[in-house]
Each structure stands twice: as structure tokens, then as C-alpha cells.
Design brief:
Number of domains: 1
Helix content: 10-25%
Strand order of the largest sheet: 4-5-8-9
Strand content: 35-45%
Number of strands: 12
Radius of gyration: 15 Å
Distance between the termini: 22 Å
Low-confidence stretches: 1-17
Length: 145
């Protein structure tokens, strides 16, 4: 359970990760989320049936409660030897299918090239909608909003 500040009320809202689907067919799924601090979860990534170590893929999700909706901001770290194999795209796509959305604000990214490429690939998926402006990228599963 994560507490999220509701600044208009001066209180914290409590919520947890909410799956909308179990998983998609494919090679990437997720283990049970692990709360790592008051506002972030680590989501174990399973590739081809093997749970990746934190040193290989560290996928952290920061849920934000905005206008009555939970938005998921990822922080993803992929070991250099595993990069450029489509894992980032696959992880984002699988996450959207399980949890409904993912977003990335322009001022919080550490890798503008890769994240932009992932969102560009996501925009070509038939079942995912990508919105972008000068502040963020937001991708969500069609029919989830």
C-alpha cells in the first residue's frame, strides 16, 4: 500500500498496484511487486520464464494519484549487456497490458533517446494509445480509460 499526497486536502491517499489483466501472451511477465519505500514498488521482471536479477533488470514503478486515476511512472535500469535487444519496449508493453498505463515526464528522464524510442514503438501498437506534449509521454491500453 502506498500513500500518495492529495495536496488539495492536505492528506495522503492509500492505494496499491492495480492489475487490469493478468498478463499478455509473450516472453515478459512480472512477479509480485515489492514495496521498496513509501512511494515506489520494485516489480520483478520475468523473461522467458526466468526472473531477472536486480543487477540485470531493475524495474521500479512509482504510482501517482492524479485526478482520480492512478498513473504509473517507471524507472528502468537494464544491464548494459542486455540493452538494445527490445527488452525496454517489451517490459513497457507488458506493463501497459497488465496495469493499463505508463507515463514519463520530460524532466524526470535520464535517457531521452531510449525512452523516446520506446514510446515511438508503443505508438505503433494497435491496442496502445500514446499521447505526448511538451511535458510528458503517456501510453495506455485502449479501453482502459
Amino acid at each position: 500500500m502506498v500513500e500518495s499526497p492529495d495536496e488539495s486536502l492536505g492528506i495522503f491517499r492509500k492505494y496499491s498496484m492495480k492489475k487490469i489483466n493478468e498478463s499478455i501472451e509473450g516472453d515478459i511477465t512480472f512477479g509480485e511487486e515489492i514495496q521498496i519505500n513509501d512511494y515506489q514498488f520494485r516489480l520483478p521482471v520475468i523473461v522467458n520464464g526466468r526472473e531477472m536479477t536486480v543487477d540485470e533488470i531493475n524495474f521500479i514503478i512509482e504510482p501517482h494519484y492524479v485526478s482520480g486515476e492512478t498513473l504509473y511512472q517507471p524507472h528502468i535500469f537494464i544491464k548494459e549487456s542486455l540493452q538494445h535487444q527490445g527488452l525496454g519496449f517489451g517490459i513497457y508493453k507488458a506493463f501497459i497490458h497488465e496495469f493499463g498505463n505508463i507515463y514519463s515526464s520530460h524532466w524526470c528522464r535520464t535517457n531521452n533517446v531510449e525512452i523516446v524510442a520506446i514510446f515511438n514503438k508503443l505508438s505503433r501498437e494497435d491496442d496502445i494509445i500514446v499521447e505526448k506534449n511538451n511535458q510528458y509521454y503517456f501510453a495506455y491500453l485502449k479501453g482502459s480509460r
